Every structure is written in structure tokens, then in C-alpha cells.
Amino acid sequence: SPITYHHDIPWKLNVMTENSARTGNQTFFTAFLYCNWESENEEWQVDYNAEFVIVNRGEE
């Protein structure tokens, strides 16, 4: 996703599916929420809760 800033911190959403021998040939959907991934400060931390909602829009 495009980078979005909240409270002056960069956020990015990455989603993907995987269907492989590793997953027992079942399809899995995965979502990752990244924040401030380019920071080199090892003491930096954030406490944040996110809620993902999946909406089925049918076949398009």
C-alpha cells in the first residue's frame, strides 16, 4: 500500500496469499502492518492496536 503518516510515523500495509507445500497446499491470506521500518534507532518502540476487516465483495 502507499505510505500513510499517522502521528508523524510512516505506516504501510502489505497483504499476500500463499499456497505451497509449506502451507499444506492450502491458501492462506496474510496481512502485515509496518510502522517506521526505516528507523535505525534500536530503542524506538510503539504500542498500537490495529483491526483488520475483510469484506467479501463477491466476484467482480
TrEMBL record:
A Pfam family it matches: MATH
InterPro entries: MATH/TRAF_dom, TRAF-like
Domain of life (superkingdom): Eukaryota
Annotated ranges, domain MATH: 2-57
Annotated protein name in UniProt: MATH domain-containing protein
Organism placement in taxonomy: Eukaryota, Metazoa, Ecdysozoa, Nematoda, Chromadorea
